[in-house]
Amino acid sequence: MQNAPANPDATHSIQNLTLVVNEIYRSLQGESSWVGIPCVLVRLTGCNLRCVWCDSGHAFAEGRRWTVKDLLDRIEELGESLVLITGGEPLLQRNVRPLMQELLDQDKTVILETGGSLDIRIVPAGVVRILDIKCPDSGECKHNHLENLRFLGPRDEVKFVIASRGDYEWARDLIREHGLDGRCTVLMGVVFGVLEPRDLAEWILEDRMAVRFQLQLHKVVWGAGRRGV
């Protein structure tokens, strides 16, 4: 039998907090070292950045309000132990923290994808943090909160979306300057339809970069414009 919470009233109040959710569905994890694993994707509404190549602009404003309890119930219905929380920028909504903690308490594996402009220290211990560092061609490079790099651990990941040779060289130099490839998983992928994957793969090999090359699996399988996958 599961133990009763030490403070049932506190649990009740947490579960009645709300979040604005753009979409929630079951799919395969599309990026990161977790790629290909079935998961529940929770996309929260709102973003403080406007990357030139953004593929989730529908999350800027579209969505409806859910209680944490209803979200937890829906995640349980969808039936996967891996939960990805993304956006938009999920850390803009303060109630994402209790949601993540509740999922951890239910023995879920929780991944958070964040754009890298906000402090990641609020994220509960146990959550896998994927930090999306913005390269120059994104138009949002100036908003990178590079202080976050100090707080990454071996379970965390850093992602660079590359649109050009200039983006690649900028990311390569940042990785080396901060010793990222020795502290966490470093991911490099292309802006879909802008840079040829082969070019990035060859640059990585030429420079002997200890990074993980990736493609966006969901776009390869279902196509670039399809939502809910």
Name the descriptors.
single chain; 229 residues; alpha/beta; TIM Barrel; 6 helices; 26% helix; globular; disordered N terminus
Question: How do the helices and strands line up, and which of them pair or pack?
Answer:
Blueprint: H1 8-15, E1 18-28, E2 38-44, E3 64-67, H2 68-78, E4 82-86, H3 96-105, E5 109-114, E6 128-133, E7 157-162, H4 165-178, E8 185-190, H5 197-206, E9 212-214, H6 217-222
Parallel strand pairs: 2-4, 4-5, 5-6, 6-7, 7-8, 8-9
Antiparallel strand pairs: 1-2, 1-3
Fold and architecture overview:
This protein is an alpha/beta fold. It has a single domain, classed as Aldolase class I (TIM Barrel), CATH 3.20.20. Helix content is 26%, strand content 24%. It has a nine-stranded mixed β-sheet. It is globular. Residues 1-10 have low confidence and may be disordered.
